[in-house]
TrEMBL record:
This is TonB-dependent receptor plug domain protein. It comes from the Bacteria. One of its GO terms (cellular component) is cell outer membrane. It is a multi-pass membrane protein.
Length: 233
């Protein structure tokens, strides 16, 4: 009796393209540059010391120093923020132990609509943007429903992107042991008082393979059974 080893595919490849577009004033607006002032808590520039809720600010420099290649990894450094595993898609983010549908996620102060479902929770909201395109993240913990509605019972996470200054396209690639992600960021430049940007993310899940040992009975041909797994990669 003898065995022979061969490779058998046991995984799959899936790809998703996520598209978002935001517009923001390109002139007459002064972006907040300090940790001491936030805009999310009251929808206007407000000193942190006067805000009744707990507030945390993650700056572009913090993101750069973290070395993270996606926003979910960046948020892992935030205090009192819950990261949970979503079915098939990755980590979901919530505040104060609430469900994800009670943690409001904003991009430049605007809602991300229709992406909090039982299957995906809010993971796609953080896959839309590359960390390189983010100017700051403001996290407001505690009820903000008077300003934002019931979605903000647990709090608000506002991702503020860098304002486009000129036309151009940036492409980035992040790769890991199980997947590869490609980011494409396109700036339209300034058009009067307005500018716009488009972000696209393409993610590929790598094939998983395993060793399969096939038992070969002498005199009975090649196929008689298979089983066992010794590793995957």
């Amino acid at each position: 009796m003898k065995y022979r080893k061969f490779w058998q595919n046991t995984g799959f490849i899936s790809a998703a393209v996520l598209l978002s577009m935001t517009s923001s004033p390109a002139a007459g607006a002064t972006p907040v540059q300090t940790r001491d002032v936030v805009v999310t808590a009251s929808k206007t520039a407000t000193e942190v010391r006067t805000v009744p809720q707990a507030v945390e600010v993650i700056t572009a420099k913090d993101i750069q120093l973290s070395g993270c290649n996606d926003l979910r990894s960046v948020l892992a450094y935030a205090a009192n923020l819950n990261l949970s595993r979503a079915v098939m898609t990755g980590n979901a983010v919530s505040l104060r132990g609430m469900n994800t549908d009670h943690t409001l996620i904003l991009v430049d102060g605007r809602r991300i609509v229709g992406e909090d479902t039982k299957e995906t929770q809010n993971v796609y909201a953080f896959q839309r943007l590359s960390p390189n395109d983010v100017a700051r993240i403001e996290i407001v913990r505690g009820p903000s429903s008077s300003l934002y509605g019931s979605e903000a019972i647990g709090g608000v996470i506002n991702i503020i992107t860098k304002a486009p200054q000129k036309e151009g396209v940036t492409v980035g690639v992040n790769t890991g042991t199980d997947k590869t992600a490609v980011f494409v960021h396109a700036d339209s430049g300034k058009h009067g008082k307005w500018s716009s940007a488009v972000d696209v993310r393409l993610e590929q899940i790598r094939k998983q393979t395993r060793h399969v040992y096939e038992r070969v009975e002498e005199g009975q041909g090649d196929m008689s059974g298979q089983g066992g797994m010794s590793g995957q990669g």
